[in-house]
Specification:
The complex is a heterodimer of chains A (158) and B (794).
Chain A (H helix, E strand, L loop, with lengths): L1 E6 L2 E6 L6 H8 L18 E4 L2 E4 L12 E3 L12 H8 L9 H14 L5 H7 L11 H19 L1
Parallel strand pairs in A: 1-5
Antiparallel strand pairs in A: 1-2, 3-4, 3-5
Helix pairs in contact in A: 2-5
Chain B lengths: L25 H4 L16 E7 L5 E7 L1 H4 L4 E5 L1 H7 L3 E3 L5 E3 L5 E2 L5 E7 L2 H8 L3 E6 L28 E9 L1 H9 L3 E12 L8 E7 L4 E5 L5 H12 L6 E4 L15 H13 L3 E4 L2 H7 L3 E13 L2 E12 L28 E9 L16 H19 L3 H8 L8 E2 L5 E2 L4 H12 L1 H13 L3 E10 L11 E2 L2 E2 L2 E7 L5 E5 L8 H13 L6 E4 L17 H28 L6 E4 L2 E4 L2 E7 H9 L12 E7 L8 E10 L6 E11 L6 H20 L31 E4 L17 H22 L10 H8 L8
Parallel strand pairs in B: 1-14, 12-13, 16-17, 24-25, 31-32
Antiparallel strand pairs in B: 1-7, 2-6, 2-8, 3-7, 4-5, 9-17, 10-15, 11-12, 11-14, 15-16, 18-19, 20-30, 21-22, 23-24, 23-29, 26-27, 27-28, 30-31
The chains are: A alpha+beta (158), B alpha+beta (794).
Chain lengths: 158, 794
């Protein structure tokens, strides 16, 4: 069936199977492979994207459910060659190793800072607890989100 | 414009050489531009899916594929019969056993591969799996290693001629039995424990998979596959599939974690290759999470019985008897001459009078594997055992666990130190590192806090572990895998503009090789790391070597890159002598240039030397142009990193839930090339170790059903289970490594489980009489132990 949605600011229309998952639609149909798949059971969070600005696990959303909605992926974050502060923070604080969980973690953190620009470490840990990182032990991810929050606030005050 | 390339960084953060350099590889990953296996699409590509056995042990009476073949978009259905015609129904394992690629006679574990469907898309391939009719005759299963050799245990490997029981390998021994008996006879205190290191799984976030692309016109086989040892895999495929090795190219690209899980060759790989050879089209196969947990390389599953003894306040002897559970096929990963891996490093960090170790291995109706999950070939099991035993001994002797360790450590003056089981430790100052950890933790204050809390009925525990690892396998005089020497190559080319490309045989899965190996070249040649490209992961573009596992990248590949850089530097010296019209002996090196001794103004920068090497100008007599070199590095010994870890836990007295409140880790891995990357490795390994200690386990019911086949049941720590790790460091350079470095990636996974378990027991011993608990320390198991009903995991 036909589905029309706005992905990273561009309207797309495709004919998809009703059972197609959003993660497969993004990866296989639109070739947006920055969103990853890791578990089948909504536990790992590698597939987190924004649906109308809210963080969702795209393995738990059908593509057809997004008809008329807005989807944003990790590929949308860098604007005019400028990285999102969270992307910068992940680099600055060594918050990634193999990189596989990174897009999901970054999109999760972006959603957190959109709602709460000044989270505590405990709030950051709760926010990212829906995702699994097998490499970093999370310590540097927490630092990265804190770094991004601080720089974003400083940028807005300037 | 801000990009990663021009983020503002103070110069201290851009070292030319060793230091906390931010990673080059981040630029693509933070943008979602990594290139993982499942991101690759080739024209005309077909998709494979595997049908797996629902039974742990059953005869296959018939397989009917006709309905699946008639399904929409299905191109082929492959069974064992089809593979037999290609000679591919069975494949050799890494341990000289054989493993069924697709089961023909019977299935031997739940999740075993039975048929392979090839279709035009992934959804259709998986739909067709439901249409394959397999008739099974279920057989009794054995899942408990202790029962595998019982007379009434079902024979699992009836495919092996002469196999009459489930013994996978005969008893293997190390150490001196008689001397050990003597140590025990003379001892003051003896403690005995039965300790299980349960079956767990590396579970990298990216599962395993492959794209095989055979070109029938040219006979070229291109393989895209995230594996930790691409060159060794190429050799294996040449032997297994009967293809010429020079016509096979393996490209690894980015890998979403490995941790040992991506070392072996799996049946799905062979199916993809066979499918592509027959279909003449590229075939992609990617396993789902359940397939990953149920069928690919698990880790540990060691059932250990041990005695430890002390005399005059010092640990003196250790005796270990182990049953290794290999599952249905022996595909354990270790060097050929070491059937129990490096398990006999079990003497740990202690100056023992004697030790004796024996290990026998059994088959069970469980998945094959026995990979080294972030572990140098069974050292994790060894460290867990000796540290648990030393802890139990300290408790029996009523001495502090740190004090007993301090009394028993190998002294710094004793290195190089020969253990009673045959290892030559290279360097160490164990007491110093232990003291740093003790100070960092505020150990005495923690003990006071514990006493106060205990008086209030709160359960707080402090656990200590000290480990010695042996990593960087290994010297060709001592070890090989499948007859292949465990050496690594490096090929360094400095271009005429002074920029360089270094190709290595190590294979990153997130370790940051693109940054740290560039830093080694930078340190040795003075070329800024941003001007050094590190190539890896493509067998056509990198020298031969055995890849990345067993913490061997820095010890072996790092050695190779240092040595090849020095070869280039030596050549540069000769060229500089021509340029400066002086004898090479009159030149001295400082980072980035050769200069005339006594006249430092007179010198040649490395980029000027490189320009000269490619120019039309005169070269030294008899020397070829260009500035490059290659080496195959054969390490003279393993490197022996070590560390002292302290865990602080709180246990909810009402639920048995364990919270790791603090974790202090002081590692000594010799010289640190990039301390930021080292710290990151330690954080990740600690998280995994805490997971193993508290949550991660693969269990089976009596019929062999896997009870942890998804992330709903195989629990991996999240940000809420991991504390804010506190790290410290001591630096004792490795005397034989060109850079003084040792491996580190696995240390935290090795060292943390015994610390956490010791802390759990420490919290419960005085109030609840608990003196042993097996991992994982789940709330239910801790609660049972608190009620005096400790249960083994199986």
């Amino acid at each position: 069936m036909n589905v029309t949605m706005t992905v990273n600011g561009q309207e797309v229309t495709r004919d998809v199977e009703p059972r197609m998952l959003l993660v497969h639609f993004l990866r296989d149909t639109l070739d947006l492979t920055g969103t990853h798949w890791g578990c089948d059971t909504s536990n790992c969070g590698a597939c987190v994207v924004h649906l109308d600005g809210k963080a969702v696990k795209s393995c738990t959303v059908l593509a057809v459910m997004c008809d008329g909605h807005r989807v944003d992926t990790v590929e949308s974050l860098e604007k005019d060659g400028e990285l999102d502060p969270i992307q910068q923070g992940f680099h600055e604080q060594h918050a990634l190793q193999c990189g596989f969980c990174t897009p999901g973690m970054i999109m999760t953190a972006r959603a957190l800072l959109n709602e709460n620009p000044n989270p505590t470490d405990a709030e950051i840990r709760v926010a990212i607890s829906g995702g699994i990182c097998r490499c970093t032990g999370y310590k540097n991810i927490v630092s990265a989100v804190r770094w991004a929050a601080e720089h974003e606030r400083a940028g807005q005050e300037a | 414009m801000t990009t990663v390339e021009n983020l503002p960084s103070p110069s201290a953060e851009r070292p030319i050489g060793f230091g906390r350099l931010k990673r080059k590889e981040d630029a693509r990953f933070i943008r979602g531009q990594g290139n993982y296996l499942d991101d690759i699409k080739l024209p005309g590509m077909l998709y494979g899916a595997l049908l797996r056995s629902p039974y742990a042990h059953a005869k296959i009476l018939s397989i009917d594929t006709s309905r699946a073949l008639a399904a929409p978009n299905v191109a082929a259905v492959v069974t064992a019969k089809d593979l037999e015609t290609l000679g591919l129904a069975w494949m050799p394992t890494i341990s000289y056993d054989t493993q069924a690629v697709l089961a023909g006679d019977k299935v031997r574990f739940q999740g075993q591969e039975v048929a392979f469907v090839i279709a035009t898309d992934e959804y259709s391939a998986n739909d067709a799996l439901q249409l394959i009719d397999v008739e099974y005759e279920p057989l009794p299963a054995v899942v408990n290693a202790r029962k595998a050799l019982d007379d009434d245990a079902p024979l699992i490997r009836d495919d092996k001629t002469g196999q009459r029981d489930n013994l996978a390998s005969p008893t293997w021994e190390a150490g001196d039995k008689e001397a050990t008996d003597k140590a025990f006879a003379e001892a003051d205190t003896v403690v005995t424990r039965d300790i299980i290191y349960p079956r767990c799984h590396p579970a990298p976030l990216e599962t395993c998979g492959m794209i095989a692309d055979f070109n029938p016109e040219t006979g070229q086989l291109d393989i895209y596959n995230g594996n930790q040892a691409p060159h060794a895999h190429r050799t294996v495929y040449a032997h297994v599939a009967g293809l010429a090795e020079h016509m096979i190219r393996i490209m690894c690209n980015d890998i979403g974690g490995g941790f040992g899980n991506k070392v072996p060759v799996y049946p799905g790989y062979v199916c993809a290759i066979a499918g592509s050879i027959v279909a003449g089209k590229p075939i992609k196969w990617v396993e789902n999470r359940s397939e990953n947990l149920m069928s690919t390389g698990f880790a540990r599953d060691y059932v250990m019985h041990a005695d430890i003894c002390s005399k005059d306040g010092k640990v003196t002897g250790l005796r270990v008897d182990t049953i290794a559970d290999h599952g249905a096929f022996d595909s354990t990963a270790q060097p050929t001459k070491f059937p129990a891996g490096f398990f006999h490093i079990v003497c740990g960090s202690y100056d023992l009078q004697a030790a004796h170790v024996q290990v026998k291995a059994v088959y069970t109706n469980k998945a094959p594997g026995g990979v080294a999950y972030r572990c140098s070939f069974r050292i994790t099991e060894a460290v867990y055992l000796v540290e648990r035993m030393v802890d139990a001994l300290a408790r029996e002797m009523k001495v502090d666990p740190i004090d007993l360790r301090m009394q028993s450590f190998i002294g710094p003056e004793q290195f190089p130190y020969e253990t009673t089981t045959g290892w030559t430790y290279d360097s160490g100052d164990y007491a110093k590192t232990m003291q740093v950890a003790k100070d960092l933790a505020g150990y005495d204050d923690l003990r006071r806090e514990q006493a106060e809390k205990r008086a209030r009925g709160e359960l707080m525990g402090i656990g200590v572990s000290f480990f010695t690892e042996g990593v960087g396998a290994g010297p060709r005089k001592h070890m090989d895998i499948l007859g292949l020497s465990m050496n690594d190559g490096a090929d360094l080319r400095v271009h005429g503009t002074g920029k360089a490309v270094v190709s290595i045989s190590a294979q990153t899965q997130g370790q940051g090789h693109e940054t740290t190996f560039a830093q080694i070249v930078a340190e040795e040649l003075g070329i800024p790391p941003e001007d050094v490209t590190v190539r890896h992961g493509d067998t056509d573009k990198s020298p031969y070597g055995l890849g990345t596992y067993g913490s061997r990248s820095t010890p072996v590949s790092g050695g190779a890159v240092a040595v090849v850089s020095r070869k280039v530097r030596d050549k540069a010296r000769l060229i500089a002598s021509t340029m400066l019209e002086t004898s090479p002996d009159d030149l001295a090196w400082e980072k980035g240039r050769w200069y005339v001794k006594g006249d430092p103004e007179q010198g040649a920068l490395i980029e000027d030397i490189a320009a000269r090497a490619y120019s039309g100008e005169e070269m030294p007599e008899g020397m070829e142009g260009g500035l490059d070199a290659q080496v195959i590095y054969d390490p003279p010994n393993l490197t022996y990193p070590y560390g002292a870890y302290i865990a602080v836990v709180d246990i909810d007295p009402d639920t048995g839930h364990v919270t790791v409140r603090r974790f202090i880790a002081v590692d000594d891995c010799g010289v640190r090339i990039n301390p930021m990357v080292v710290d990151g490795q330690i954080h990740g390994g600690l998280a995994e170790g805490i997971g193993i200690a508290l949550m991660e386990v693969l269990t089976f019911d009596e019929e062999g059903n896997c009870l942890n086949s998804s992330f709903m049941d195989y629990l991996i720590p999240t940000s809420l289970e991991c504390p804010d790790f506190e790290l410290g460091a001591t630096v004792t350079p490795c005397p034989h490594h060109p850079l003084g470095a040792k491996g580190v990636g696995e240390s935290p996974n090795v060292g943390s489980p015994p610390a956490v378990v010791a802390a759990v027991i420490d919290a419960l011993h005085e109030t609840h009489g608990v003196d042993h608990i097996d991992m994982p320390c789940t709330p239910a198991r801790v609660w049972a132990a608190m009620q005096g009903r400790p249960e083994p995991p199986q």
